[in-house]
Predict the 3D structure of the following.
Amino acid sequence: MSEYFSLSDCDVIGFDLDHTLCRYHLKETSRLIYESFTRYLVEHKDYDKDLLILTPASWDFCFKGLVVDLEDGNLVKLAEDGTVLRATHGTNNLSTEEIIKHYGSKREWKNFDSLNTSFTKSTKYYFYDNYFDLPGALLCGRVVDMLRKRGNEVNSDFWKDIVAAIDHNYNTSAFKEDAGWYFPSVKRDPGRYLQPCSESVKTWLRSMKSAGKVLLLITSSHSDYCRLICDHILGKDWEELFDIIITNALKPGFFSLVPQQRPFRTLVNDVEESEGLPSLDKPGWYSQGNWPHLHQLLKTMTGKPEPKVVYFGDSMRSDMFPASTFGKWETVMIVEEMEGEGIPRCDAAKTNEAQAEPRGKKGKFEDQGMKAPSAPSEQWGSYFVDSHKSGEGDEESQKLTWCCHSIHKYSTMAIPSVESIADLPLNYKFPRFCPNKPCTTGYYPRPPDSLLRKFQSQSS
């Protein structure tokens, strides 16, 4: 395998939508998601109204890559080998001694092998790896605090209520029915939550199409929400940019092999036809579906027995792991956390964000100190690297987080945003992650600060 990766070598270029092509105003969106979930618990499940009250400082807890242990109400941050680097019970930190008491002297999280090898959902834990459900980590912590305050036992029962709150706001009919709080709010004022794509990104997409590439959009969002987003971020003619559009893809299940695979369905006025398609015969807009049928169509469209596909996404569980493991695709991970560690936002992204600043909201939370969910956390540290101490008297060592290790294992390369590469020529050669290279190789435009520091200290 070459040490370099180039888009010009790919026949097919695919994109996830949310937090990949579409960047959100993370602070505004996170507050809306938290409020949407919490209002359901308060109004439908009789939870304390105090859960709705947040200070800007509360958001420091909101950190991608946490795993909530549903059996005891702990949230854990894991090292690449499954060691518990940091942990809380609810939102309250566990000391080194408490972590060792709970997880043993080696600080091993017992469900790590299951999570690390399959990324599948479990009744015992939940992995927070995308911004759409991330505010739920803060809510979980605060619900555990509330149960403790009431003197109630903490077990997995509370999770059923959290799942019901997520389903109430995000189920496929919620957009059309104006159900819940999330979709009605975004529909009323999309500019408050969505950042339009820069002209450089639109030009980049068109240039790939002109170069003969097949362009894919694969999103788990339903067709009506996808259309709202794309109308806003790409313009009314956005459908012309893509050869194949797949909504309600139900990733990661989209990449599953026979016999679990779901058939593709056609859409009529955003309603899925009840009869599934036996195969995919032509480009167009489809719902649900599966990777093997898509692969057959791509072979026909490119005229190649094994078309080379690259897929851009932001979720390890839904995008990177299944696309690389089952689809054998090249994968580019969007890691917004890079911008919180020394990588400046590109000019196009900054200009875009300034132009799209939520009306009447500028400065409201920034001045009060609300942390962006992609920024490093005082409570949880860096997304990429963390210090580890086995016990009292032991020296601290720097360990890669499990999330960081997974990026290197399942991604071809990592970038902070599509804007960061949109102005480069299609034949630009990016260094890729390689087992025989330092793991700082593969980040563009450069590695995050914490990784650089770790490897500079090792080499000094």
Summary: The longest strand covers residues 84-89.
